[in-house]
Amino acid sequence: MGVNDRIYNPGAKVFSSDREEGIIINPIKEEQIHHGIILTTLDKVVGWSRKSSMWPLGFGLACCAIEMMCTAASRYDLARFGMEIFRSSPRQADLMIVSGRVCQKMGPVLKQLYNQMPDPKWVIAMGACASTGGIFNNYAVIKGVDKIVPVDMYVPGCPPRPEQLLDGLMKLHEKVRKEGLHYRRA
Question: Are residues 101 and 133 in contact, defined by beta-carbon separation less than 8 angstroms?
Fold first, then answer.
């Protein structure tokens, strides 16, 4: 916060080291202590902030991508959970939603995008194809995206409804909130 972000209080104490930076510090009176003070742990604050500010990277490859796009539309409204838009750059995202079948040629691209995402990062495998390869029993389709990147949440279905993706996102939010500072990736 800069000088312009502070509210001027004529009765505030200004310390000599703060005069050089232009920071005004308001004294706390004893009768004001019970108003506006929150006691919590850093772990809980970090977990809450990570849960409340996930930015998804949409990796739509097949019919599941249509359902993923519907989830972001006005009827289901992902903006309620702090996910207004799907990021187009992996460097701006911390949640990858892989929706659809992943072929052998797309595997290295998926891995590269995952590696470009900043830590901490999470992955949702949306649909039967992303989770297990689906109905495609041939050499070209990878049998589960977890063979390429670690998956945090699986959303079953062919294709899964937007309500199912929202349920998976809520369960992932709960998992992230409980992690706090203790983020570990296998």
Answer: yes
3-class state of residue 1 by DSSP: coil
- Its domain, for residue 169, covers 45-179
List, for residues 41-63, the tens digit of each pLDDT value: 777 777 787 777 788 887 888 88
Same domain, 74 and 10: no
My answer on whether 27 and 65 are in the same domain is: no
Q: In this structure, are residues 155 and 64 in contact, taking their beta carbons and an 8 Å threshold?
A: no
175: how many CB neighbours lie within 10 A of its CB? 14
Strand order in the sheet with 122-126: 56-60, 95-99, 122-126, 153-155
pTM score, two decimals? 0.72
Residue 184 lies in a domain: no
